[in-house]
């Protein structure tokens, strides 16, 4: 038997084994019990009920981007939404019928937290002291999972807000800061006024700084100091960020929406159009 025949036989055996592996894996995936029977692509709304009608509502828009509708009307933090969605597909070892169970014993009646995907509700109970897993109720079945989703479901609404300062599809046409003022003229050239003049390169840097700026956290708005304003405008909308603190970090508030962005302190100068050479210590 020559080497070519041996090589072909080897390739055939390899392909056959590979095919069997993927068939077995596909069958195994079908046999895995998941927390819910929901299909991810069919989930259009997520509701986290809270006391006193302070729940959180997310809706998937036509571009498959998740927006928060309550309590704030703003783009949602996409990664955290995906984390919530993954909960529905979590593999579970065992599901228990609830007919013979007293759900109160597991803090599931009433539950400690709830989340609703479309119309499918998942309730969170207490932790099992033996294995530190949390009791959950989904589709009339009780199960236990590692306590990973509960802290997120219990988090404040502002923690689900997107960290970017500039909304999607927001064309920056004007930026006003305490020291700089730039706007796009009708002839598509930029005009710079204010106490600090910005040349073309500096203007583009300022625009890019705004587009790339992200907070490290978003919180519910809390009145603080009045240290000035930063304004950005598109053709149809103006956002006015109130500078309410700048030490130990920068806080930019949107009181009308009810949130505040917490950012690294150096971004105060970066977003104001102040370069290092313009600072007193330069």
TrEMBL record:
Pfam family, one: DUF4340
Limits of the DUF4340 domain: 66-233
InterPro entries, per database record: DUF4340 (IPR025641)
Transmembrane segments: 6-23
Keyword entries, A-Z: Membrane, Transmembrane, Transmembrane helix
Protein name, entry field: DUF4340 domain-containing protein
Organism in which the protein naturally occurs: hydrothermal vent metagenome
Species classification: unclassified sequences, metagenomes, ecological metagenomes
């Amino acid at each position: 038997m020559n080497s070519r025949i041996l090589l072909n036989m080897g390739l055939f055996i390899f392909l056959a084994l590979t095919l069997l592996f993927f068939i077995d894996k596909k069958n195994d995936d079908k046999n895995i019990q998941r927390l819910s029977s929901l299909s991810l692509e069919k989930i259009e709304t997520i509701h986290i009920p809270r006391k006193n009608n302070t729940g959180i509502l997310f809706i998937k828009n036509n571009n498959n981007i998740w927006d928060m509708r309550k309590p704030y009307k703003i783009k949602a933090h996409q990664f955290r939404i995906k984390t919530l969605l993954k909960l529905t597909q979590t593999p579970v070892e065992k599901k228990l019928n609830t007919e013979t169970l007293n759900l109160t014993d597991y803090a599931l009646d009433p539950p400690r937290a709830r989340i609703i995907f479309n119309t499918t509700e998942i309730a969170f109970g207490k932790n099992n002291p033996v294995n530190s897993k949390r009791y959950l109720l989904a589709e009339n079945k009780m199960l236990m999972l590692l306590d990973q989703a509960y802290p997120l479901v219990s988090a404040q609404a502002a923690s689900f807000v997107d960290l970017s300062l500039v909304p999607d599809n927001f064309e920056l046409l004007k930026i006003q800061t305490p020291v700089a003022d730039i706007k796009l003229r009708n002839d598509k050239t930029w005009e710079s006024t204010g106490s600090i003049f910005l040349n073309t390169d500096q203007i583009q840097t300022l625009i890019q700084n705004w587009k790339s700026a992200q907070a490290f956290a978003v919180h519910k708005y809390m009145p603080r100091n009045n240290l000035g304003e930063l304004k950005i405008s598109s053709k149809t909308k103006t956002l006015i960020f109130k500078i309410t603190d700048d030490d130990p970090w920068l806080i930019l508030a949107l009181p009308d929406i009810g949130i505040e962005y917490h950012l690294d302190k150096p971004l105060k100068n970066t977003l104001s159009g102040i370069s290092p050479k313009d600072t007193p210590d330069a």
